[in-house]
């Protein structure tokens, strides 16, 4: 019985690798939350203690992280989850790692945040 190999699985794997490799992020920044500002739409911005830069392309300031619904795939539910994580870290004094996007800017709020680690 002969086995026929097709290119489809290999092409699919290459596409996945290509999608992952285009996921550009700034250097992850670690710190504790200094302050937060939330608007009526559920978008918010924050800084870390000592106000380190979170990206190189923030519209307002490179030391402000921003989570904007609709930017970089952030949903309202995702924004609430990130906000809850950051508030938990703020209230408990735990450190966070902020992951920003160097290619997507927001509407003047600072660096686009799309992931947060708490530890």
Automatic annotation (TrEMBL):
<feature type="signal peptide">
    <location>
        <begin position="1"/>
        <end position="26"/>
    </location>
</feature>
<keyword id="KW-0732">Signal</keyword>
<protein>
    <recommendedName>
        <fullName>Lipoprotein</fullName>
    </recommendedName>
</protein>
